């Protein structure tokens, strides 16, 4: 579809903030050449009637553990990153952070090296790297291997700072139990997106780490100290601190829709809630199970669990998350689309390219069905 002239009309255009009706957009050889009210955009080349569907920027997913039947840590290589990115592109994701779950120092180094190589090659979709561990709390480990969780050493910190210098974005999820405030400050000053998660730390401790430089929270409500009547925990810190944004797994399994609605209303700006898939190996495939460090993960009824029922990532794509947010949580579609595009892209410190932008390319865009049941990548 990127060759020749193509004009889209008859749908709604999302500009990163608003849904716009009655407008058309035209591309030549993939590059946007015209945009405006229907009457002002000639119907040249192939004319695509969107039939009420939405034309907007591709999704941005900052937590992708795997896809196409493979986990990132199974074989940290450029080819693995290519497979994962391709699987998620079929689900509408044009920018992602491949995510390494707590692993050995050797696998972590190999993953960093592979991601640097992928960035140098210009591998489509790879926007950086997310290291979720190993410096977490055993008490809130979730599906992470407790035997691999450990404190951050000065050598660990040095390796992270070096990685940050070679990557467009390095996100690191840490717990105060195993990382010092000084280490957080050093990472933040180096441009690392420090995210609090998998922690039992109390409210005041979490606020202290946010003041030290943490700007993000990993999968709100899950694997963290909860919002209580006398102790607000990390949930309370995430919602009350305007300097942080927080990811959310909106599958109506990890978090109840009513809890999502309350959190959305309570979140202090300018920080915002954004959507993540927390996708595992099954994403973009029909696999019903896979292994995570010799442990079998079962795919049943829209959930991924260990044998004991512990949630192990999510069986989720962002189009489904958007539908949950609109239909079950009751939020406006415009705001939810922003949570899957604009907000996470801002954390990457890059502009989200939409059909209204003169430098937008078809490869930046997706078509979302008006009933939110599927998505088409246009590039």
Automatic annotation (TrEMBL):
Binding site for Zn(2+): 132, 198, 219
Key word Aminoacyl-tRNA synthetase present: no
Enzyme class: hydrolase
InterPro entries referenced in this protein's UniProt entry, alphabetically: Amidohydro-rel, GlcNAc_6-P_deAcase, Metal-dep_hydrolase_composite, Metal_Hydrolase
Active-site positions on this chain: 278
GO MF annotation: an example: N-acetylglucosamine-6-phosphate deacetylase activity
Free-text comment on the cofactor: Binds 1 divalent metal cation per subunit.
Enzyme Commission numbers on file: 3.5.1.25
Cofactor(s) needed: a divalent metal cation
Keyword entries, A-Z: Carbohydrate metabolism, Hydrolase, Metal-binding
Domain spans labelled Amidohydrolase-related: 56-350
A biological process from GO: N-acetylglucosamine catabolic process
Keyword Metal-binding part of the UniProt annotation: yes
Binding residues for substrate: 143, 222-223, 230, 254, 311-313
Family membership noted in the UniProt record: Belongs to the metallo-dependent hydrolases superfamily. NagA family.
Name this polypeptide is given: N-acetylglucosamine-6-phosphate deacetylase
Gene designation: nagA
């Amino acid at each position: 579809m990127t060759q020749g002239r193509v004009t889209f009309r008859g749908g709604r255009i999302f500009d990163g903030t608003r849904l716009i009706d009655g407008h058309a957009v035209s591309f030549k050889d993939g590059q946007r050449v015209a945009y405006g009210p229907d009457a002002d955009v000639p119907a040249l080349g192939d004319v695509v009637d969107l039939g009420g569907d939405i034309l907007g920027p591709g999704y941005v997913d900052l937590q992708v553990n795997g896809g196409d039947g493979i986990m990132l840590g199974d074989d940290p290589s450029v080819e693995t990153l290519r497979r994962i990115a391709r699987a998620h592109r079929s689900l509408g994701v044009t920018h992602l952070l491949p995510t390494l779950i707590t692993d050995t120092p050797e696998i972590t180094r190999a993953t960093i090296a592979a991601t640097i190589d992928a960035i140098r090659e210009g591998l489509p979709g790879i926007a950086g790297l997310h290291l979720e561990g190993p410096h977490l709390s055993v008490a809130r480990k979730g599906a992470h291997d407790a035997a691999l969780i450990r404190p951050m050493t000065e050598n660990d910190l040095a390796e992270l700072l070096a990685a940050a210098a070679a990557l467009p974005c390095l996100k690191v999820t840490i717990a105060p139990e195993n990382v010092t405030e000084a280490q957080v400050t050093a990472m933040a000053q180096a441009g690392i997106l420090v995210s609090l998660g998998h922690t039992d730390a109390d409210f005041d401790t979490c606020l202290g780490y946010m003041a030290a430089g943490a700007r993000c929270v990993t999968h709100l409500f899950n694997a963290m100290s909860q919002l209580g009547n006398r102790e607000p925990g990390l949930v309370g810190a995430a919602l009350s601190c305007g300097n942080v944004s927080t990811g959310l797994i909106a599958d109506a399994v990890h978090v109840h829709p009513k809890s999502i609605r309350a959190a959305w209303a309570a979140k202090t700006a300018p920080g915002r809630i954004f959507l993540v898939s927390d996708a595992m190996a099954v994403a973009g495939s029909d696999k019903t199970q896979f292994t995570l460090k010799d442990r079998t993960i079962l795919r049943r009824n829209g959930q991924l669990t260990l044998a004991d029922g512990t949630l192990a990532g999510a069986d989720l794509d962002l189009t489904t998350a958007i539908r949950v947010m609109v239909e079950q949580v009751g939020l406006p579609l415009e705001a939810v689309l922003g949570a899957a595009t604009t907000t996470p892209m801002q954390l990457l410190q890059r502009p989200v390219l939409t059909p209204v932008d003169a430098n937008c390319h078809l490869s930046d865009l997706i078509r979302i069905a008006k009933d939110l049941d599927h998505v088409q990548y246009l590039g």
